[in-house]
Amino acid sequence: MNIELCPLHNEHDRMRSTAIQIIEKLTQAGHKALLAGGCVRDMLLGREAKDFDVATSATPEQVVKLFPGAQTVGAHFGVVIVRLNHVHVEVATFRSDGSYSDGRRPDSVTYSTPELDAQRRDFTINGLFFDPLTEQVIDYVGGQVDLRMGLLRAIGVAKDRFEEDHLRMLRAVRFATVLGFDIEHATWESICGLAPKIKSVSIERIREEFVKTMLSPNRVRGFDLLVNSGLMEQFLPEILVLQGCEQPPQFHPEGDVFIHTRLMLSLLPAEVSLPLVMSVLLHDISKPATQTRDADTGRIRFNGHDKLGAEKTGEIMRRMKFPNDVIEPTVIAVENHMVFKDVKKMRTAKLRRFMARPSFDDELALHRVDCLGSNGWLDNYEFLLAKREELANEPMLPPRIITGADLIAQGWHAGKALGKLLTTLQTLQLEGTLKTKEEALAWVAQHAPVPDVFDAVEE
């Protein structure tokens, strides 16, 4: 099977061209060199590869001799990073791996041949090579057939591949999700049987694969694979507790909290932010802990599940070592997802402050799928869209007509009293009561005389 090489026109093509230059130089020096792994898979699927890796018969020392300045950070595994044209390309010597005592990396490697190098890789679709100089695919593992069939199959004995590197189980889920492939039966059975071993992998690596899976437009399939394989239970068991947690049918005809959460995932647009998808997963995470039934009516309630859920969300995401700039907006979204039911009753100032928050767009998207995944009532969502349209030609929070410096010039002192007064003045401004600085100063003179200096000091 030939792969058509198009002219350079973007970063992807620049990376490809650089990798081919490296292959040409290695070949001219008498070594065998091929494109390897994921980039070959993606080219055959008509997808843009994220990077281009080269496999070669040259040893790391020989690669460095040809490319002075190359980084030998992975030389123990036969890997060298070559920098050319401001592009970094991983160049790895054909190898066979020794035993994997830590379930993650080989204890030793032996330089070998392309045939043996293909055998030590994870899945057949990742075990392909491509010679760009002859434009030929080199397939020792049946990867081309599996690509055509849309099948993810471990190379050799599936159990052995996953025992070598436990992270491969999550990679299998990610590839099946992103590519829309089925997982071959023996490969799937091995994942299910070995799922508890994923705990031996660092939470950072687990999180990385989990995030890639959940950011895929096909995320519901990934969610199902993680749950059904037993992998989700190992690193995010709180999701499984949602199963069987009943909800009031008049508000949630779709079923229990787990079904509701999964349905919300399916209603998200293809492209989402990480805080949004995480807030969907975790917004009702404390419903099981807060579930009560009214003794007389039998009505199910979850009082305080939003506040407790925000705390629990923070705990879970810190445990998984998410960065703070992902944790914070996710926690805020979970904490505020019940506030949306009250937006029509909010005073103008409170509503504008609510809508002006940096995380509001994601929170609004969360509210939309929360409604669509339950009773379908979108009146509050539509109200907010209309309000945003109404205010589209002005800042949601316009510049203050009066500042702390203005008040200090009138004799006020910095402190809590000054902060409260500024909030009051902003409220009056947002509601249209005060329109100019002069009006604000007059209002202060009438309604908020300068406090005694001793009171200001005590504060």
- Structural class category: alpha+beta
Cα shape: globular
Q: How is the largest sheet built, in terms of strand order?
A: 3-4-5-2-1-8-9
Tell me the total number of β-strands: 13
The low-confidence parts are: 4-8, 453-459
List its traits.
alpha+beta; two-stranded antiparallel ribbon; 24 helices; 13 strands
Question: What does this molecule look like?
Answer:
The strands form 4 sheets. Strands 3-4-5-2-1-8-9 form a 7-stranded mixed sheet. It has a two-stranded antiparallel ribbon with strand order 6-7. With 459 residues, it is α+β, with helices and mostly antiparallel strands. Helix content is 51%, strand content 10%. The chain contains 24 helices and 13 strands. The chain is globular. 34% of the residues are buried.
Topology:
Layout: H1 11-28, E1 33-36, H2 38-45, E2 53-56, H3 60-66, E3 71-74, E4 79-84, E5 87-93, E6 95-97, E7 109-111, H4 114-119, E8 128-131, E9 136-139, H5 143-149, E10 151-152, H6 158-164, H7 167-179, E11 182-183, H8 185-194, H9 203-214, H10 219-229, H11 231-235, H12 238-241, H13 257-267, H14 274-282, H15 287-290, E12 292-293, E13 300-301, H16 305-319, H17 324-336, H18 348-356, H19 360-372, H20 379-390, H21 404-409, H22 416-430, H23 437-447, H24 453-458
Helix pairs in contact: 6-8, 7-9, 7-10, 13-14, 13-19, 14-17, 14-19, 16-17, 18-22
